[in-house]
Amino acid sequence: MTEQQLREEMVQIGASLFSRGYATGSAGNLSLLLPDGNLLATPTGACLGELQAQRLSVVTLQGEWISGDKPSKEVTFHRAVYLHNPACKAIVHLHSHYLTALSCLQGLGHCCKVSDEAAF
What we know:
There is one protein chain. This protein is α+β, with helices and mostly antiparallel strands and 120 residues long. The protein has helices at 3-19, 75-84, 97-103; strands at residues 29-33, 39-41, 57-59, 65-67, 90-93. It has one domain (3-119): Class II aldolase/adducin N-terminal domain (L-fuculose-1-phosphate Aldolase, 3-Layer(aba) Sandwich), CATH 3.40.225. A five-stranded antiparallel beta sheet has the order 4-3-2-1-5, with helices on both faces. The two termini are 25 Å apart. The relative contact order is 0.17.
C-alpha cells in the first residue's frame, strides 16, 4: 500500500472504532509503520472519529517529528513497542469504557488477568 492509502485506511479505522463506541472524545491513538520505516500516528488531541488523512503525524522511530500535526505524546510508547518488537506493524491503543471499568474491580481471579506479554 502507498502512504496515501495507509493514511486513508487509518482514517477509516478510526471512524469505525469511534462509531462503535470503542473510543470517545480524544481518547485513544492509532499508529502504523510506513514502508519507509517511519511511523504514521494520530495527532495530539485528535478524535478518532474526525481524523483527516493529511493531518496525521509522521515521526521517525528515533522520535523526530517530520510532518503533519503535532504527534500525540503517546507516540513515545508506540515507538518503544515498534523498536522492541519488529513483528509489530500497527498499534490500536484505546481506553474502552468497559475495560476501564473492569480494571477497577477488586478480586478478579487469575482467569481475568491480562498477561504482561499481551501489553506488547
